[in-house]
DNA sequence: GCATCATCTTA
DNA sequence: GTAAGATGATGCG
């Protein structure tokens, strides 16, 4: 099918800039003459529906030819909805065209910022154009004009001539066109916005919308805005001054950053205002009176029939034989016409995208029970014993597992039914509420069931519940029969494996996204902020609803994910063979903790403090006055204003940039002091003081928490404290590492994968040179320098090696010449030459970059070595910067993500062979594992770990069904010593 | 009291 | 240029 241009109109010269000074203003025009009894003139922002429905509706809407039809259906539904609602006589659907407009002429960025649209959407566009035509609705595409401006112009003319207007769009920029007789209606979300709606949403009037956007900026439209002025400040300033002109006249009285930046960026305001303004006086031929809907049922019925059958819109097709034509806007037909399934899909997607339409989970028929007596508990025990699997959730006094005590337990054995067993809810005076069952009795009766490996355990973030239960000497185990590994399902990890990027993986997020259900929030039951109480202070009936809902929702999620995983064998394997076993190991590692030498940390802290004070004193002498050395703002003003040092650059929020990269270029005694001050105060506050504060007072061990469902690539993250960013690069920083020690009779042993991401690059790219270097065991950075410069490895200088190292890292990060130039302090051209030389010598690597970008664009995801799909949602973003960012992330993701897969496999492999009496796994730092090991077994255990890690792809991975023919050797380096520094 | 910015730490 | 988390300063309510 080809696009049919019979509805396109004569071009507008994109180089002719509109006259913004005399632009007619829809929001402020006179509307007293408008007759509201007539049906409104409807202007549809076709481009909005195209993009919105394409991204919001499932891609599973397809015909048997594999054509995705979600945007076609979504846009069609929007049109039909409008016709049903208004029975309009005049209407137009407006689309952008590909040709440049005056906005391109205004801004170079605008010109460059036209990325390709997803092919799956492009394919749908001609169908939409044809459908609009076949429905008898005028379609407007004007070369050189944007849909927004066509709509603005026609809306103005219609109102001028006495008609009221409905603009069908969800684009907030269009709010500037609202007045008494012009409203916006988003037919996808159902939201209608009039003047009151604008005031409610942004606190300003529609006629202030242009100024509002100009001040605040709008990244999606490339409007920069004034730094330091966001939604809120823009609103307040407009309320005070009415408009930007008045604001600028009184700018002297505007305090703070906003006032300062208004002056500084005043010159940019007119330009931004133009970008934000919708044109209302385009020289287009059509008048609203020309845009008549053809309501003759027979006019295009054959065309419609053809389209519906090709698209396989069955119910729409059937409805054509009905006496009424859909273009009549007959409600009875329109309601019956979309087929039930796709209507349901549309409805589902709608619910997930608008909070107002989300169910609350209580609207179901529910059977939620509170267990308060032994007979009821006995009955529950019997059900749990006989269940193949069930959901368990613990309620506790804290979100930190280390200090949490159990308050109650909830269970679910099927959807829509749940049980809560309150144990230690308290009255205000901390007294236990009497009617509850005894905690220890309940736990001891549950213990055999929770420890029974044949009864599957399901939960949301089970690592947490496992920690809690282990406080009470219960070892939570129990898998599904079809998956051998422990725990039947962790819904958080399941969601993470299925799609790490589509949503966060907290239960509230999962309920909203997958079940279209808004759960009771913790704040609802326990209050928020300082007034929040712990769960044992929540009344039992309220707590029971909350806890039962958690278990119920978790069960429903289990049902859903179980089905989804049955259809994707690799995802199931990633969950059951990789993530869940990893979670169990993490649970042990967190519980182990790492011993620290408190006295040493305290000494360091004291030493740092003395040096900091001395530095402050010297700084004040140089500056001539006291100021806060830790304040970038005060430092910037002191250095660049008061002391008059040249080289001041400002950040986007208007203050001087004083980052290390800038300061280290400045030759001034104060700078030296500041850099040393910063280094020391960072070490003191973030490490020496903080570690001492979080260490267990009895055991002197520090227990981090690993978050397993957070990063976009599959890496773990570590918090409270973060033990993945302990210093190593500087001598002083390394002192911190010396505080991490082993207990008497043991040593710290660290094992890390050498150059794992570059090896993965060699594997994926199959580049002959890179592969060769690793196979020969060369110093990879020196080898790169030698290769690129065409000299012998032995002749490579230190600088040459350093540059090669930077380029190797750059590769992993999706490097640009700009970025490399900054890193190496060379010109962009030099950096580009260097990159060109590199790609000339490593053509496989270049090809990998090209292929990975293409894969991300075409499929919407990239894959790791174990087949984990990492989705790249912004890969076709309309903003060029965002898109390029997504491309770099897409290049990096398979490398970083595969390294994460490998270390998880390694943890599982090592855990299996590690003699638990003689060694403990303590930490994971992305490509490194840290252990404490009996001193007399170091050699032996070190070898055990090295072998397990190096052979992981030929042993553990294969056992679990992943067959990877890795292109280069995996190398593990180990070392040991009295502390973590010595072990590295 | 809470959110955001700038800065700095790691792989 | 990728991926994270913690801190102090600052500004807002």
UniProtKB/TrEMBL annotation:
Composition bias type Polar residues, residue spans: 9-19
CDD domains with a match to the protein in the record: DNA_pol_A_pol_I_C (cd08637), DNA_polA_I_Ecoli_like_exo (cd06139), H3TH_53EXO (cd09898), PIN_53EXO (cd09859)
Keywords: DNA damage, DNA repair, DNA replication, DNA-binding, DNA-directed DNA polymerase, Exonuclease, Hydrolase, Nuclease, Nucleotidyltransferase, Transferase
Keyword field contains Oxidoreductase: no
InterPro entries: 3'-5'_exonuclease_dom, 5-3_exonucl_a-hlix_arch_N, 5-3_exonuclease, 5-3_exonuclease_C_sf, DNA-dir_DNA_pol_A_CS, DNA-dir_DNA_pol_A_palm_dom, DNA/RNA_pol_sf, DNA_polI_H3TH
Residues of the DNA-directed DNA polymerase family A palm domain: 733-937
Residue span(s) of domain 5'-3' exonuclease: 37-294
3'-5' exonuclease domain mapped to chain residues: 368-566
Catalytic activity: DNA(n) + a 2'-deoxyribonucleoside 5'-triphosphate = DNA(n+1) + diphosphate
Annotated EC: 2.7.7.7
Protein's UniProt keywords contain Nuclease: yes
Family that this chain belongs to: Belongs to the DNA polymerase type-A family.
Assembly: Single-chain monomer with multiple functions.
NCBIfam families for the chain: pola, PRK05755.1
Record's protein name: DNA polymerase I
Annotated organism of origin: Psychrobacter saeujeotis
Name of encoding gene: polA
